Amino acid sequence: MKPTGTDPRILSLAAEVAKSPEQNVPVILLKLKEIINNTPLGSSELKKIKQDIYCYDLIQYCLLVLSQDCSRIQGGWTTISQLTQILSHCCVGLEPGEDAEEFYNELLPSAAENFLVLGRRLQTCFINAAKGEEKDELLHSFQIVTDSLFWLLGGHVQLIQNVLQSDHFLRLLQTDNVQIGSTVMTMLQNILQINSGDLLRIEGKTLHSILDEVVFKLLSTPSPDIRSTATKLLLLMTESHQEILILLRLSACYKGLRSLLNKYEPGTEFSQELGQLIALLTPKVYQEVEEQKLHQAACLIQAYWKGFQTRKRLKKLPSAVITLQRSFRSKRTKALLKLNKQKEEEHRRLQLQLQRQRAMRLSRELRLSMLEIVHPGQVEKYNREIEEKSALIIQKHWRGYRERRNFRQQRPSLTEYKAAVILQRATLKFLEKCRKKKKLFAPWQGLQDLTDARRVELKQQVDDYLRRHPSSQMSDVTSRELHSQAQEQLQHYLMGRALEERAQQHREALMAQISTNIEQLMKAPSLKEAEGKEPELFLSRSRPVAAKAKQAHLTTLKHIQAPWWKKLGEEEAGDEIYVPKEEFSVELGTLFIGGTKPP
Q1: Is the separation of the CB atoms in 595 and 536 below 8 Å?
Q2: Which DSSP category does 413 fall into?
Q3: Would you kindly state where each structural domain of the chain is located, as residue ranges?
Q4: Distance between terminal CA atoms of the chain?
Q5: Where are the alpha helices (DSSP H) in 441-542?
Q6: At what angle do helices 77-91 and 44-55 cross, to 10 degrees?
Q7: Lowest-confidence region among 227-231, 279-283, 335-339
C-alpha cells in the first residue's frame, strides 16, 4: 500500500528509475543522497522520506545494484560506495510499519551480507591494483563501505551477531594488508564498543578464529597501528567477558602469550594498554578475578534470599493494609457525604428562604400597586375577592395533598388487585389449555348402544350395497397376466421416454446451432467489406437453408439488375419476387451451399 502525501522528489525519482535502462539506475539512485542531506537530521520529514523510499522499493534497487558487477556500473567503486552510504542512512531510523517482519528478517541481513561481500571484492581489487592512485581510491571506497556497515550496525544492533558469524568478515579480518587490516580491526573495535554481549552468542569455533587472528596480528604484525588496535581489542574483550579472560589464561592455544607480550619495549605508544593486558593475564590478577566472581555470586545469592524473605513478609501485610485502607476510605467517604449533605441542606434552606422573601415582597408590591389603582370605595370589595381567591388556592392545595395521601395509602391494595387479576387471567388460560388437551387426546369411548330397529336398518343398507356392487373375484392366472401386461406397458413407457429425451436434446442442440448462426449472420460484414476466408465462415450445413439462401440471393440480384420500369408496381405487389428454378444455375451457385467440397 503506497503512503499518502509522498514527497514529489521521491515520486519523480521512482518513476525515473522504473523508466530508465538498467545501466543508468545506479547514477539515478545517487540523487537520494542529496535529498537525504538536505533534510534536517532527526526530523519527522526525514522519517517520512525514508518511509517513502522504502515503500517505492528504492532500497531494494540499491541492494540489487550492490550485487552487480562493478565494471558494468557507471562511476565504478565510487558510485557503489556512495550507494552503501545511502542504503545505511535509509535503513537506520526507518519505521517499516506493516512490513516489519520482512524488513528485519530479510532486508537488513541481506544488506549486511552485501556490505561484507562488497568489502571482500574491494579487498581483492586493492591487493591486485598496481597504481598508487587506484589503490588510494579503492582504500577510500573500502573505508566508506566499512563506515556504512558500522552505521547500519549502530542503528540495528541485532545484526552484530550475523556479521561476527559471517565467513566474509573472518576473511576480511585475516588479510595480510596493513591498511585493510587496520580498517577492519578498527571497525571490530567500534562494533564491540556498541554491544560486546553478542561476542559470546556466536559459535565457539568462530570466536576462537577471531581471537586467534587478533592475537596473531598483535604478535606478528610490524605495524604499530594494528598492534595498538589489537591490544585495545583484547583488553576490551577481557574486561567485558570473564570467560574470554579465562580462555586466554588457561587455554593451551595461548600458552606463553604473557611472556611474548613482556618482550615488547615499554616505550611504545600502546604500552599503557599492553601493561593492563599483561596485568590481567597474570595469575594474581586471575585469582583476584575469581575471588571477585565468587563475591559477585555470593552477593547475588544473598540478594535473591533477602528478596524472598521480604516478599514473604509482605504477603502477610496486605490483609492488614487493605483493612486499614478500607476503614480509612469508608470514614473519609462518610465524612464527605455528610459534609455534602449539610451543604445541600443549607443551600436548600437559603433558597427556600429567598423564595419566600421574594414572594412576600412581590405580594406586598402587588397589593400596594392595586391600592393605588383601586377607588377607595372599592377597596373592601377588592380585599374580599383576594381573600376568596386565597381561600380557593389553599383549598385546592389541601385537596390535592389529601388525594395524593389517600392514593399512596391505597397503592398496595391496587397493586394486589392488579396482581390478582393477572394471576386469574393466567390461571384461566392454563385451565382452558388443559381442557383442550383433554379433549384432543381423550381415548375413544366406543359407540353408543344401538337399538334393535337401528341394527335392522343398518343391516338392510349393507345388503343393498352388496347387491348393487357385487365383488369381482380374480383367479391367480388372470392376476399374473394382468401383472405381465402392466410390466410390458411400463417398459414401453420407459423406452419411449428415453427416445423422447434424446429427441428433445437433439432439438435443443439444433435450436442452439440456429441461434448461433443467426447471431453470426447479424454481425457479419457486407460482401464489399469481406476479406479472405470470411465468406466461408457463413456456409450452412443444412441443404434447405442453403437452397433458401441461394434463392433469396438470386432474387436480390435479379431485382437489382432489372430495369426501372419493372419496379414501378413493387410496393403494391409486395416484397416477394418470383424467380424460376432455371435462374438458379448461375456462376454463384456454390456460394451458400454449406457442407460440400468445392469442385
Answers
A1: no
A2: H
A3: 8-283, 284-373
A4: 66
A5: 452-468, 476-523
A6: 120
A7: 279-283
CATH classification for the domain delimited by 8-283, as one of 1.25.10.10, 2.120.10.30, 3.40.50.150, 3.90.220.20: 1.25.10.10
Whether residue 350 has pLDDT greater than 50: yes
- C-alpha 400, offset from chain centre: 68
Closest CA to 22 of 76, 81, 77, 64: 64
Whole-number average pLDDT of the chain:
77
For residue 538, the number of C-alpha atoms closer than 13 Å in the C-beta half-sphere is: 19
Summarised one tens digit per residue, pLDDT across range 376-413 is 777 788 788 888 998 999 999 999 999 999 989 998 89
Residue 518: all three cell numbers together: 443467426
Q: Are 107 and 59 in contact (CB under 8 A)?
A: yes
Alpha helical stretches, state H, 317-378: 318-373
Q: Give how far Cα 61 sits from Cα of 18, 34, 46, 67, 77, Å.
A: 10, 17, 20, 10, 17
Q: CA 395, CA 392: separation in Å to the nearest integer? A: 5
What nine digits make up the cell of 123? 579487498
Nearest to 5 by CA among 52, 57, 58: 52
Distance between CA 19 and CA 200 in Å, rounded?
48
**pLDDT tens across 45-83, in order?**
777 777 777 776 777 777 777 777 676 776 677 777 777
Give the single-character DSSP code of 471.
Answer: P
Q: Are 129 and 138 in contact (CB under 8 A)?
A: yes
pTM over the 0.70 mark: no
The closest alpha carbon to 141, from 226, 186, 84, belongs to 84
Contacts of residue 6, Cβ cutoff 8 Å, sequence gap at least 6:
52, 55, 56
User: Cell numbers of 263, please?
Assistant: 618482550
The highest-confidence range among 88-102, 396-410, 547-561, by mean pLDDT, is 396-410
3-state secondary structure of 83: helix
Contact 49, 102 (CB under 8 A): no
d(CA 193, CA 59): 28
Q: Give Cα 577 distance to the centre of its chain.
A: 74
Distance CA 92, CA 103 (A): 12
What the block records as the C-alpha cell of 547 is 437452397
d(CA 147, CA 349): 82
For residue 439, the one-letter residue type is: K
